[in-house]
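Notes from hallway chat w/ T.B., transcribed later so I don't forget. T.B. wanted the structure written out for a chain they're using in a teaching module, and asked if we could keep both sequence and structure tokens in one place. Agreed to drop them here.
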Amino acid sequence: MMQETISDQSVIEAERFKLRPPRRGDIGLLTLYAGDRRVAEGARSIPHPMPPGAVEGYVARAHAPDRVEDVWVMDGGEKGHEVLGVISLTRMDRGQAQLGYWVAPAFWNTGIASEAVRALVEANPLGNETLFAEVFQDNPASARVLTNAKFDYIGDAEAHSLARGTNVPTWTYLRKMG
């Protein structure tokens, strides 16, 4: 039987849920939620429609010892909802990482994203000096999540969205961790 834990990735407790590495048992709900056009269009790297095997590959990459992105599932299992969304840190150089997250539509406007970002920032599991994040400009709710977590707006840019098939204007944020 394959071990499904990532020994060097911590579980982070939030108030209403925990952040834990993804597991194979999450693939069904991750496919359902990430396959929702609204979720995919709010992210850079989620394709729509979701190709077969994409989520399986994502979970496998999250377990790779040479991964550059640490991924946590927002797990509300004690409340009856095992997968609420995903949050991740992609390693960059010089003690920096890029934060990314999405929440399943059923849990939008409940504070889940804000709680997950706060918990991850407080834990700082990679020991980062600086975190970056970006949101599409047509998603002001995600921008509020970042500003509420003390990220500073640093400028406009654009990023390619796989689901939209085009470059989309973004707002970029930074948080010094010291």
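Follow-up for T.B.: The first helix runs from residue 27 to 34. Might be a good example for the class.
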